[in-house]
């Protein structure tokens, strides 16, 4: 379970998160929607301890993420993250990309790491690309590699930050399909997304972010189809 | 009565080879030391804040902009004047290495800075530590990116090593000057020396270009 409790976060004078609370129980998929600069990415970064917080608390599997005593590198093994940028390691093959972290972070043997990497690559439909260099692949394939690379660490949670925003429209589908598969398998996910159809159909709940607060949160279909908050209505009418 | 000058002969081979050997030695020393120091400083500059950079940058700017020949003469005169005269090879190696370092540090800095923050964050998000990220991601990607420019600097160091002759190091140019003095055959000798530099440089720069093409993909 991920539990975000009244988190405040500022960059200098700019307060980006103004008291955000969100509980995501295991197995749930929450989509986060909202305008540019509303703090969606920052929230994910705070959950992953890439950014610090000013006040409040974030618990991941009951571990206090921002406590000094927490080993953040160890914590991040439980939190897979995929970004808008593909971030494939260009000097490694697809297989090496996915096997690197299991090998050097989890100290698995080479064979063991390769085994897991292969399985996750097949999982996302890249079973025929093991020895290819990622720069030779389409954006959609690179993004699926990023997902497989995160999955190879056997995370309990996946944090996805607009993973389809940098893709050509015709490649969005294959990545969303992969995420849908993960959701069906019961992965706990927080997805920041601009894909309203995905948010509605794949997630359990949708949170609408507005200027650093969650303005509305509820059952996915209800928030997307019949938003209660005026701000959500305005936002949705603009993006549709 | 014999002429004061004696023509070039096979007996001079050993002398010429010594010159060649010395040119290669000091070039290799300068490139290796300059590369290692340049890598460390380039990394430090890519990682550190403004103040450190301004300080470092000033020193490096001086090393880069004062002509090498002046640095060589100043340094060897200086160490002589304070009572620690150095062997020309040692003095030349020190100056040429620092000079190389100054250029290499910019090359490496550019390489390390070319690895995006987002790429490094992605590595950290997999649980990799700071140093694992440096070692497995930032260094290999950065180093690959700078290979062609590294080669460019290395090549110019080989050529610049000729200047170390001014402080009395018997590298190729200086041996050939002495041979010219004795034989009065400047054309033959200088053409020979030119060919030597070409033979060393051309394959390297050719290799560099092909690397560049390969990595542009
Ligand atoms: N490292 C940083 N330093 C300073 N300001 C930052 C930093 N990261 C984000 N911000 C600012 O914080 C605000 C929220 O950024 P954030 O990236 O969380 O927004 P977002 O909701 O993800 O927007 P988008 O939809 O454009 O990705 C923005 O105004 C941004 O400029
Ligand atoms: Mg964002």
From TrEMBL, chain A:
Q: Does the keyword Lipid biosynthesis apply?
A: no
GO CC field: plasma membrane
Residues forming the ABC transporter domain are: 2-236
Q: Which domain of life is it from?
A: Bacteria
- Transmembrane parts of this sequence: none
Name the InterPro entries on file.
AAA+_ATPase, ABC_ATPase_HisP-typ, ABC_transporter-like_ATP-bd, ABC_transporter-like_CS, MetN_ABC_transporter-like, P-loop_NTPase
Q: What is its main location?
A: membrane
Gene Ontology molecular function: any one:
ATP binding
Q: Where in the cell is it found?
A: Cell inner membrane
Q: How does it sit in the membrane?
A: Peripheral membrane protein
- Family matches, as PANTHER family: AMINO ACID IMPORT ATP-BINDING PROTEIN, GLUTAMATE_ASPARTATE IMPORT ATP-BINDING PROTEIN GLTL
List the protein's name: Amino acid ABC transporter ATP-binding protein
UniProtKB/TrEMBL annotation, chain B:
Looking at the record, the residues that make up the ABC transmembrane type-1 domain are 20-208
The GO terms describing molecular function are: L-cystine transmembrane transporter activity
Q: What Pfam family is a match for this entry? A: BPD_transp_1
Which cellular compartments is it found in? Cell inner membrane; Cell membrane
Q: Where is the signal peptide?
A: none
Q: Which family does it belong to?
A: Belongs to the binding-protein-dependent transport system permease family. HisMQ subfamily.
Q: Give the top-rank taxon of the lineage listed in the UniProt record for this protein.
A: Bacteria
The uppermost taxa in this organism's lineage are: Bacteria, Pseudomonadati, Pseudomonadota, Gammaproteobacteria, Pseudomonadales
Q: Does the keyword Cell membrane apply?
A: yes
Q: Which UniProt keywords apply?
A: Amino-acid transport, Cell membrane, Membrane, Transmembrane, Transmembrane helix, Transport
An annotated GO cellular component: ATP-binding cassette (ABC) transporter complex
Membrane topology designation:
Multi-pass membrane protein
What sections of the sequence does the record tag as coiled-coil?
Answer: none
Question: Transmembrane stretches, by residue range?
Answer: 20-44, 65-84, 90-108, 145-167, 187-205
InterPro entries named among the record's database cross-references? AA_ABC_transptr_permease_3TM (IPR010065), ArtM/GltK/GlnP/TcyL/YhdX-like (IPR043429), MetI-like (IPR000515), MetI-like_sf (IPR035906)
Please give the name of this protein: Amino acid ABC transporter permease
């Amino acid at each position: 379970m991920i539990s975000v409790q009244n988190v405040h976060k500022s960059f200098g004078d700019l307060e980006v998160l103004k008291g955000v609370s969100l509980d995501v129980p295991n197995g749930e998929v929450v989509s986060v929607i909202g305008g540019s600069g509303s703090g969606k990415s920052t929230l994910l970064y705070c959950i992953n301890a890439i950014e610090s917080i000013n006040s409040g608390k974030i618990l991941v599997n009951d571990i206090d993420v921002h406590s000094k005593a927490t080993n953040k590198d160890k914590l991040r093994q439980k939190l897979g993250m995929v970004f808008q940028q593909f971030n494939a390691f260009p000097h490694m093959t697809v297989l090496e990309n996915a096997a690197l972290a299991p090998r050097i972070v989890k100290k698995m043997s080479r064979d063991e790491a390769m085994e897991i990497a292969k399985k996750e690559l097949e999982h996302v439909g890249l079973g025929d690309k093991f020895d290819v260099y990622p720069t030779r692949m389409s954006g959609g394939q690179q993004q699926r590699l990023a997902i497989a690379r995160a999955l190879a660490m056997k995370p309990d949670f996946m944090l996805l930050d607009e993973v389809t925003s940098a893709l050509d429209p015709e490649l969005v589908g294959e990545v969303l399909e992969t995420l849908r598969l993960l959701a069906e398998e019961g992965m706990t996910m927080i997805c920041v997304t601009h894909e309203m159809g995905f948010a509605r159909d794949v997630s359990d709940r949708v949170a609408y972010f507005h200027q650093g607060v969650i303005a509305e949160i509820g059952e996915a279909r209800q928030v997307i189809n019949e938003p209660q908050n005026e701000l959500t209505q305005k936002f949705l009418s603009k993006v549709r | 009565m014999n002429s004061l000058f004696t023509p070039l002969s096979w007996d001079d081979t050993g002398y010429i080879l010594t010159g060649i050997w010395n040119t290669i030695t000091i070039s290799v020393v300068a490139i290796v030391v300059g590369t290692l120091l340049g890598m460390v400083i380039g990394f430090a500059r890519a990682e550190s804040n403004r103040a450190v950079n301004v300080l470092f940058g000033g020193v490096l700017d001086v090393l880069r902009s004062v002509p090498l020949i002046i640095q060589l003469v100043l340094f060897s005169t200086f160490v002589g004047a304070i009572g620690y005269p150095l062997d020309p090879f040692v003095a030349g190696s020190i100056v040429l290495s620092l000079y190389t370092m100054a250029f290499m540090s910019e090359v490496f800095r550019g390489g390390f800075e070319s690895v995006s923050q987002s790429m490094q964050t992605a590595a950290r998000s997999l649980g990799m530590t700071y140093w694992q990220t440096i070692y497995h991601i930032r260094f290999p990607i950065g180093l690959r990116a700078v290979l062609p420019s590294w080669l460019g600097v290395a090549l110019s160091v080989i050529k610049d090593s000729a200047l170390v002759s001014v402080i009395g190091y018997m590298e190729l140019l200086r041996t050939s000057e002495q041979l010219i003095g004795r034989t009065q055959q400047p054309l033959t000798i200088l053409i020979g020396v030119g060919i030597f530099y070409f033979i060393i440089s051309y394959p390297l720069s050719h290799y560099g270009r092909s690397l560049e093409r390969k990595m542009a993909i």
